[in-house]
Amino acid sequence: MRAPFPIPALRVGASQHQRCHPAKQKDMVKVNLPPERAKDWKEAMLKKMAEVLDKYRSVRLFMDICVKCGACADKCQFFLGTGDPKNMPMARADLFRKVYKRYFTLGGKIWGRANGAEELTESVLQDWYTYFYQCSECRRCSVFCPYGIDTAEITMAAREVMAAAGIATKYVTEVVAKVYDTGNNLGIWPPAWKDNCSFLEEDLKDTEGLDLKFPVDEVGAEVLLVPPSADNFVNTNTMIGYAKMFHAAGISWTTSTYCNEGGNFGLFLDYANLKKVNNRILEAARDLKVKKIYWGE
Amino acid sequence: MAEKFLFILLPYLSAAVFLIGVLYRFWVWGRTPVPLRIVTTPAPRTRGGVIWRLIGDALWFPSLFKGDRFLWAAGLAFHILLWLVLLRHLRYFLYPVPGWVEGIQTLGLYAGYLIPIPLALLFARRLADEKVLYVSILGDYFSLFLLLAITLSGTLLRVFFRTYLVEVKAYALSLVHLQPVIPQVHWLFELHFFLVMLLLIYFPFSNLMHSGGLFWSPTRNQRANFETRFVNPWDFPVAYNPRNLWPPEKYHQALAESKEGKKE
After folding, report:
1. Contact (CB, 8 A) for B158 and B109
2. What's the CATH fold of domain A25-168?
3. Mind listing the pLDDT tens digit for each residue in B52-71?
4. CATH of the domain at B30
5. Pairwise CB contact (< 8 Å): B130 & A146
6. What residues make up the domain containing B196?
7. Do A148 and B214 touch (CB under 8 A)?
8. Can you give the pTM of this predicted structure?
9. How confident is the model at residue B246 (pLDDT cuts 50, 70, 90)?
10. A153 interaction partners in chain B (CB closer than 8 Å)
11. Nearest alpha-carbon partner for B155 in B100, B101, B108
12. Total of domains in chain B
């Protein structure tokens, strides 16, 4: 079957130098992770790895059954874009697998490198940090894998393992920390959120002559609206659309300053933050005593 | 002595390693929880649909068909031929031989002649495709090498070095009845037999476990019943923060702090 686009030749190390900025200490503290790389990072990572392998069947199974058939290789956007072989899904998973083999399987302990096992060294860690943050967790590889091996699961496991040792990226931790501070990924502070909502009210009155409310923190409304990123300040027409729709349907609604964005960057960090960021939607709904949550993103 | 080891001890040893190894793998996968719903869509909504999906995945590899037609054709040809060859071999272990086993003898015979072809193609692909070559490790070549050696020696045994089959069958039955008797056979049969035993021992430690693993794969054996709640067995509560909304004082303080920060 001819691919609709050229499949690049291997260029070893092509995207090796494209790396995320490391996390800042203040953000790491806010997301409840070690503020900097732990002195015993190797032990911390191996301990977390054992935990992850016992908590996620996906990870353990996918470590065991990949036959390296290569069906996923040319399906990854990061490989197609860079040609770096470590961006092929099976090779990306191999970064995790070689450490798994070395410390968690009999064959790897006996045969070592011949069986693809490798010690968790600084250079392996650097590869992890580079290539597990060059995966967007889109799961396209799992569609083409004959066993449904989902590299996103392995990427998430690897990031969780690194995070446990205090290794994460600035972008992700900063965004999650902002959620805990301001209620949204963008760092819109509650007064700014309120101001923006009243601006939309005025704007709507000026342009269309409509007298609609953009309620904030209204206890007892029927619906809590959690808009997707940026609806309130970039795609304002969508936000105005919500107000019109609720008005036309006669449903009372509110947004929350505690939780006014649906995107969850905890997905890119670890399970605890993933859950905490999502849980705040529930908390806000309970606080405001709403009956329903309308949740974008 | 060597023959005693090969024909009396090794078969039971490898059978035990194979069975215990495979069951142990299944047990480890089975005891490991599945915390999230990660099914690959489009997915069936019912249990029956999941069974059909898994059977389909196991029998004709639709995922490979979507992505890589050559790999699909070679892989599917190999697996079908392997099944035919394995079923054909049942005639050595069963007495009397059931009718359906007799019925597939000719088919199984030709399957045996053909099976080295897809294997060789898969081997060649592993070497020719730089992407696959990059990730291949010794274990991947070893599986292919073992299977090639087994099938080639089997074909040679059928065509050139024909073994006295009554002897082989008597031995196979003696194994089944736990009273093994050392057979008088050609050395090529000894090699063929030894490689099969090696494969059985290697099987549970290798990625050949993909055969059973498919059925444990959460992306394939889950349902898309998104209307029901999915419970994570090891879920933990996160701290509930009843009122984290910003009071104005806190906002003004943060604002002042950030302005001070900018002056520096």
Report:
1. yes
2. Fumarate Reductase Iron-sulfur Protein; Chain B, domain 2 (1.10.1060)
3. 999 999 999 999 999 889 99
4. 1.20.950.20
5. no
6. 2-263
7. yes
8. 0.89
9. low
10. 38
11. B108
12. 1
